[in-house]
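Bifunctional uridylate/adenylate kinase
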Amino acid sequence: MTAQSTWCGFVVLVIQPEAFHRREPLLAYAHKSDGWTVVERRTVTWTPARAQSLLAANADDASMSEESGEQTIAKQAAVLTAGRTEVVVLRRAVPANEMVFLREDEEGALETTPAGDWKRWLDLCGPADPEEARIVAPRSLRALFGIDRQRCGVWTSRSMEQIPEDLGKCFDDATQVDRIQESVRAVAEHVAAGGSVAKSYLNATVVETLTMGLSRLCAVQPARPLEWLGDYLRESGALQTETRLPPQLVFVLGGPGAGKGTQCTRIVSEFGHWHVSAGDLLRAEVQTQSEQGQLIDEMIRQGAIVPGYITLDLLRKKLVEAGRTLTVPGVLIDGFPRAVDQAIDFECLLRPADFCLFFECSEAEMERRLLERGRNSGRTDDNPDSIRKRFRTFMETTMPVLDYLERRIRVYRIPAEGAIDEVYARVRSLFL
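Structure:
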């Protein structure tokens, strides 16, 4: 049987519980890096029996003949049933020569054939063990979103032939399965039609989204079809304008009390950048007294890192607001990222920062500054216990971020124990 006859035109991805809270950056990365577009998605909580059925169908026959094979499936099922998952159906919508391929050793773009698309998908997912993936395929999904061999971030079918069966196990409604397959088939036929310049333009920009919407319209058959279709297009984002970000994005990092805010104020005054403090955004959310605000307040009091998806969502909204103000030359992102996964998710959802400022300061000097500030600031975290917890958190989580960023962008280390003017003279030279 040839690859052409077995390729169904889509893949099935299960975002496992350990990566569920990062599902939006993960899917954005899959699209931006290699053109994989969401056809259908749903949140699923797996039962042990259902999870084992899916995993057993994809197990190697040789391993299943041994007791260890069944034990392995049981362990994998335990991971899959540990929390919520996101089941996603994707198809590759962008020609290979229009995307940046993930493998650094790839000599040329793969052909847009079924076998080529399937190989690209497997390479995007990466080796089953995230530790291995971080060495041989550092920009694969498992390298970026996985933890260890069991909690590898994502699961997918073992072969092209297995995909239709897996679709039925992930979407247990036969009508929904048929609709997904019909939608993919209809889109593929339209895109493959080719033709005139006008048709090529439509194929590249609107045909896929519109065809998917029309397929769903036929399945739902609403009383007011045009109104329903308009709502669908708005929800899918097809009618939203492209997100505009400021020309320059700069990460500003340093321990608590290192002087980040003071130096940012000087940059804003001279160069007109916006200063966006991750901490200020979180404290503003606390003031709303929302459930999320109460969670943030408790974590700040404990000196813990607020979940990255909360900080990133607040930050993204602020950056989009700055991007709409066309006169803003750039944004100083103060106190972010605080963990490696935050740095990865920022790049997936938005774009890489242009560079990073890191203010180096001794723990003794930072504690002195914070205690002095605490006399007048009214901040609940400017007390000796919280300060020491923040120092420990900073060393354990933020310092590894620098190692990651130094492999991705330029990081400038600024000695920060001198006079304010002396420190700023070094900083200023980087913006001239």
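DSSP finds 21 helices and nine strands in the chain.
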